[in-house]
Amino acid sequence: MSILVNGSTRLLVQGITGQEGLFHTQQMLNYGTNIVAGVTPGRGGEWVLEGKIPVFDSVRTGVEVTGANTSVIFVPARFAGDAILEAVDAGIDLIICITEGIPVNDMLTVKQVIRDKDVTLIGPNSPGLITPGSAKVGIIPSTITEKGNVGVVSRSGTLTYEVLYALKQAGIGTSTCVGIGGDPIIGTNFSEVLSHFEGDSQTDVVVMIGEIGGREEEKAAAFVADHMTKPVIGFIAGQAAPANKRMGHAGAIIEGGVGTAQAKIEALQTAGIQVAHYPEEIPDMIP
């Protein structure tokens, strides 16, 4: 068992003929992900990657012809909100958006549309997700992961890679890793991914990587205290960031003293979560 993606995933790539889309489609294909279609308006009828993947003009046509059930989006930010909505309209129930910096107004529309639908949106500004040995959707390097029993959920792409590599170096594998994205408005949050890991028989412990800004880590801490029976280990990036200065992700902004690293660490510890001082410390904290 795994969460969100597995051998039954039938992946459609939106923006497959762009430089990023084509490169990462090849990487996902090399990993064994079941990619059944690509979409680029105006390029329907073509095939890419030595004729292995058909290209369609629309997501709806790609779904109707291939039975795709999952979409990953490599589309420029100004078009990515519409790309998400097109996938929703075509009946895709799991959408992973890699694109960073989608306009806030576009994401407000997306959130309103998917609110009452049975759709899971990961991202935007997400590195994607990987279930080692089964499927990789997005840009997480496969070489830093191996199959195991530790679930990983993160807001930070770079820190995700550091933690996965540290776990692998220690001989500890991952059940599924999910990058929820660092933009101010995202789809799936920490608590929803933690709920998936709580119900996953392959996951025995969870690593949660947060960062400064917002209140998602504090909400996740409350969820852990009320609902999680599996141990959770936390890390908050940006502990040395100066106050009142914008840092890194658009979502990593401390405003009015809200969202500080210290406040998040205290919330995690109050919920019974062990908090690492630095990513390389995490493997030694796995029970």
Please explain how this structure is put together:
There is one protein chain. This protein has helices at residues 19-31, 59-66, 77-89, 104-114, 157-169, 190-198, 216-227, 261-270, 282-285; strands at residues 11-14, 35-39, 47-48, 53-56, 70-73, 94-97, 120-122, 128-131, 135-138, 147-154, 174-179, 205-211, 232-237, 274-275. The protein has 287 residues and is an alpha/beta fold. The protein has a seven-stranded mixed beta sheet with strand order 3-4-2-1-5-6-7, with helices on both faces. A seven-stranded mixed beta sheet has the order 9-8-11-10-12-13-14, sandwiched between helices. The longest helix has 13 residues, at 19-31. 48% of the residues are buried.
Task: Please give the structural blueprint.
Blueprint: E1 11-14, H1 19-31, E2 35-39, E3 47-48, E4 53-56, H2 59-66, E5 70-73, H3 77-89, E6 94-97, H4 104-114, E7 120-122, E8 128-131, E9 135-138, E10 147-154, H5 157-169, E11 174-179, H6 190-198, E12 205-211, H7 216-227, E13 232-237, H8 261-270, E14 274-275, H9 282-285
Parallel strand pairs: 1-2, 1-5, 2-4, 5-6, 6-7, 10-11, 10-12, 12-13, 13-14
Antiparallel strand pairs: 3-4, 8-9, 8-11
